[in-house]
Amino acid sequence: MQQRGRWTPFLVLAAVSLVLGACGLLGRAQDVVPVQGWNKARGPVVPHDKFPDDCTLCHEGPGWNTIRQDFTFDHLARTGVPLNGEHARAECLRCHNDSGPVAVFAARGCAGCHEDWHRGTLGKDCKVCHDEESWHPREQIARHNLTRFPLVGAHAGVACWACHEGAPAGEFQKVSTDCASCHLERALKVTSPNHAGNGWTSNCQRCHSPIAWKGAAIVHDFFPLVGGHATAACTDCHKNNVFQGTPRDCYSCHQTDFQGTTNPNHQTANFSTQCQVCHNTFGWTGANFIHQWPLTGAHKSTACDKCHVGGVYAGTPKDCWSCHQADYLATTNPNHQTLNYPQDCAACHNTTSWQGASFNHKFPLTGKHKVSCTTCHTNATNYKVFDCTVCHEHSQSQMDPKHKEVRNYRFDSAACYQCHPNGRH
User: Fold this and answer.
1) Contact (Cβ atoms closer than 8 angstroms) between residue 131 and residue 125
2) Which residues pair with 131 in a beta bridge?
3) Is 291 within 8 Å of 308 (Cβ atoms)?
4) Among candidate residues 353, 380, 375, the one with its CA nearest the CA of residue 365
5) Is residue 404 helix, strand or coil?
């Protein structure tokens, strides 16, 4: 006991050196020390009077200072315990000294040799984070994801001590997962928008993600931020950092746009200030007005001022003639005015094109009668109703003998069609 007490200071120093060396705080000198030697940076040689083997295993010559260069020792074969990683490179005396039987310390696992710097805050199983290759922890992020606070985004690149103040000393006490516990100071300094003035000092996740502070996206479900609103700065709508009571109607923000629009002039035309009636949130252009007079065909691509001349929108006539009188009067094939055609353009025309008019011809245009209008209507005046004999007059000699049973040679169309359906001879 006196002999053991004699070496107590050296054992304490060696134990401290053991921990510091394991943590890489003594430099790399120990990396070049042979396993049968001793790193002098740790202090005097650890007493090992009771080393369980012949001294010549490590020493040679008449003194104790010469260490064998041809040292060999099969630890697995001699003891049944394999030495892997750093354990295979460590000096023998770091385990085999006079501090007690090795078996006693080995039975304690890692704690038998290695002081728990974490003070039990991370459990007793060192192998959860460490292996025998080094003390550097592995898979920290994956391990942390099993806690109450997974490390994602910017949190994955933050030093441990930024949240766990005791981390440099190896202690990882539980900390709050509330954002404000780490970021309150930052929140109080933000002025655009003013977080402190609006009471935004907690629940950072309402607007921010762990990726970055910029690109905050509040759950703005009370006024969906879509289209152009999605890229607008908060201060565009919330003036002077006032966020409470902001109007939700379009006109409150877009009054200047409304009053500045001249094509068409919204104010003169007394348009509704409910912008959403015509516009969407993706852009002012391409307004889609719900026109009570359906805009189909060519009308769909016609500029508003073509019909609403001078910016007058109230009381605009809805009949075709009001807009297309000039087209009606200028048409000569056939001449609408001379023939006194009805001014209801829709009777023959559609909104797609003037061409391809579909007239309700009371005289069926079937068979050989599917010809151009001018074949029968040879001038601009003979569009009045007429029968077959207008085109198909025959003399009596032409009519006999085929019509010898017919006594009236001036037939009407109905009579002709009894024998000549579809205009066939």
Assistant:
1) no
2) 134
3) no
4) 375
5) coil
Say what the pTM is.
0.43
Report residue 196 as tokens.
């402190």
Q: Is residue 333 within 8 Å of 355, Cβ to Cβ?
A: no
pLDDT in tens, 62-116: 888 899 999 999 999 988 889 999 999 999 998 888 888 888 888 888 888 888 8
C-alpha–C-alpha distance, residues 352 and 235, integer Å: 47
Half-sphere exposure of 73 (CA within 13 A, CB side): 24
* Cis ω for the linkage preceding 34 (within 30 of 0): no
- How many angstroms separate the CA atoms of 272 and 260, rounded? 14
Closest among 219, 304, 302, 300 to 266, alpha carbons compared: 304
CB atoms within 10 A of CB 370: 9
Q: Say which residue the tokens 């049973």 belong to.
A: 405
Closest to 269 (Cα-Cα) out of 304, 321, 219: 304
Q: What is the DSSP string of 135-189?
A: SS--SHHHHHTTSSS---GGGGGS-GGGT-TTGGGT--------THHHHHHHHHH
Q: Which amino acid is at 271?
A: F
Supply angle C-alpha 82, 85, 86, rounded to 5: 105
> Which residue type does 223 have?
F
In sequence order, the β-bridge partners of residue 332 are 335
Contact 58, 67 (CB under 8 A): yes
CA distances from 394 to 143, 304, 403, 417, 422 (A): 108, 57, 11, 16, 19
Which ranges in 226-369 belong to alpha helices (H)? 234-237, 250-260, 304-307, 320-330
Residue 42 burial (C-beta neighbours within 10 Å; 0-12, 13-18, 19+): buried
> What is the per-residue pLDDT across 282-333, written as a single tens digit (0 to 9) for each?
888 878 877 888 888 998 888 888 888 877 887 888 889 989 999 999 988 7
Cα radius of gyration (the chain) = 51
Cis ω on the peptide bond leading into residue 401 (within 30° of 0)? yes
Question: How far, in Å, CA of 376 to CA of 245, rounded?
Answer: 76
